[in-house]
Each structure stands twice: as structure tokens, then as C-alpha cells.
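Postdoc handover notes: sequence design on the structure in folder B. Input C-alpha cells:
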């Protein structure tokens, strides 16, 4: 067995857009039963909600629930703001007219981070945002049941909810150990999940989409590394110039300054 990596959006969407797998994952995680009326991939609201034309990876409606499921491989400074916007917009879209404000579905937004993060405060397997109302009597109540979750399987630990363990392990193993994944194959649903994303079972179209996304991500990573290297080089050169100017001001020999800073004689002369 060799499974495709679930940090690739094509693979991720294929897995969680399967109705049986989706229903079992939601039951394991949220302990709710869903009966999808629709499972949409790359969903857009028409017209856009809130003036931003965003796209949702997996969007599910049933009679009493709405699920927004996202994968995020990279970590941007605006991630939490962006997904809060998705979460709120998915609630606003339920208000069909000015005559009815009551929402007929509870919205659950689930964001999967599929890589480790730098910030220690975010190195958690599960972060949950509840909209809790408090009173002056120190009472708490839930007026709005909607919830936003951030999952990061790379920080699976003994306090992670048990229902998430099989799914988080599947994600991590697909990335770190795809040829010999150590996953819970005793569960038929995990067997099905592994078979669904088995490399041998991918269609030519799916393979091309996976390669396209991988190459795009590699290109962006190289651009980032090139930009970092250029920035370091500029910083180094600026430091050399500052030292050279200080030494020139003291009247030291050009040859000595050139040897000390690594700048050429011509470059030193241009500074004067």
C-alpha cells in the first residue's frame, strides 16, 4: 500500500467528499449524525457574502447542520481572520430574506492544518471557538451554537479527543510514512479511506491535479527561499557598508578595510 498525501488539496477533497467517510468523521469528531442533502467541492456563494468572493473546499448542508471544511497547508498571518470570515459568511448566507433572521442550521467550520507551525501557542491538535454569552451574574449560556475548529494532526497527544485519533493519524502517516502507513486498519472505515487515497487507485486526472498542486507549492516555496536569501544578502551588504564607512572615517588604509569587510577597492571608493 502507498497512500497519497493528505496535505494535498486534491487528495483531501477526494477523501472527505465521500459521503460515508464524511458522515463517520463527523460522528467521530462532533458526535452528531448528518444526512447530507448536498456535498459540494470548491463551493462559492452567488452572490458573494460580505464582498469577498471566496471558495470553500468542502461544503455540506443537511436539514439541521451546515459543515464548512477547509484544508490549509501553509500558515499565513491572516489564517484565523480568513476562516472566521468563512464561518460568519456561512451563517449569513442562511438568512434568506429580511423577513426571517432565525437560522435553521447550526454551522460547524472545520479547518485542517496539515503541517507544523512555528508559533508555540498554536501547537495544539484542537482549538475550538464557541460563541458563549455571559451575564452580570457570571452565568454562561449558548445563544448561538455555531462552532469553529482548527485541527492540526501533527500535535496529536493524550488529551486529543479520542474520536479524532484515527483521522489525525491517517493524515500524518499519509505525509510522513505513505509507503508503510501505521493506521488503524482494524476499522473498516479507515480501510476504505486508505483504499480511496491509495496511489494505485488514483485516476490520471487526479494524478495530474496532484502534480500540478505539488509543483505550484514547490514553486512558491522556492520563491520564498529566494526572497529570504536576497534579503539576507542585502542585510549582509548593508552591514559591510556601515563598517566600511566607519573605518574610512577613521582614515584607515583601503586595503585593510577591503580585507576586513569583503568589499572591493572600487566599492570603497564609491562610498567616499
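Designed sequence:
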Amino acid at each position: 500500500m502507498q497512500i497519497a498525501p493528505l496535505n494535498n488539496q486534491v487528495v483531501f477533497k477526494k477523501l472527505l467528499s465521500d459521503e460515508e467517510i464524511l458522515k463517520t468523521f463527523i460522528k467521530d469528531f462532533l458526535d452528531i449524525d448528518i444526512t447530507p442533502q448536498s456535498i459540494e467541492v470548491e463551493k462559492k456563494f452567488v452572490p458573494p457574502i460580505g464582498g469577498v468572493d471566496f471558495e470553500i473546499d468542502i461544503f455540506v448542508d443537511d436539514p439541521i447542520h451546515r459543515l464548512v471544511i477547509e484544508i490549509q497547508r501553509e500558515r499565513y498571518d491572516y489564517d484565523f481572520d480568513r476562516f472566521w470570515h468563512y464561518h460568519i459568511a456561512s451563517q449569513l448566507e442562511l438568512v434568506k430574506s429580511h423577513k426571517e433572521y432565525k437560522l435553521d442550521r447550526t454551522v460547524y467550520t472545520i479547518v485542517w492544518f496539515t503541517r507544523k507551525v512555528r508559533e508555540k501557542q498554536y501547537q495544539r491538535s484542537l482549538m475550538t471557538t464557541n460563541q458563549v454569552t455571559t451575564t452580570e451574574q457570571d452565568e454562561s449560556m449558548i445563544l448561538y451554537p455555531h462552532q469553529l475548529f482548527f485541527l492540526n494532526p501533527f500535535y496529536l497527544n493524550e488529551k486529543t479527543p479520542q474520536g479524532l485519533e484515527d483521522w489525525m493519524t491517517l493524515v500524518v502517516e499519509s505525509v510522513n510514512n505513505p509507503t508503510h502507513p501505521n493506521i488503524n486498519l482494524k476499522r473498516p472505515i479507515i480501510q476504505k479511506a486508505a483504499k480511496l487515497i491509495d496511489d494505485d487507485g488514483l485516476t490520471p486526472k487526479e494524478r495530474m491535479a496532484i502534480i500540478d498542486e505539488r509543483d505550484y507549492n514547490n514553486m512558491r516555496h522556492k520563491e520564498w527561499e529566494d526572497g529570504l536569501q536576497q534579503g539576507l544578502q542585502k542585510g549582509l551588504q548593508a552591514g559591510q557598508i556601515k563598517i566600511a564607512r566607519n573605518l574610512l572615517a577613521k582614515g584607515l588604509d583601503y586595503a585593510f578595510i577591503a580585507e576586513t569587510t569583503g568589499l572591493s577597492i572600487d566599492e570603497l571608493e564609491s562610498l567616499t
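Context for whoever picks this up: The mean pLDDT is 84. Don't rerun without checking with the PI first.
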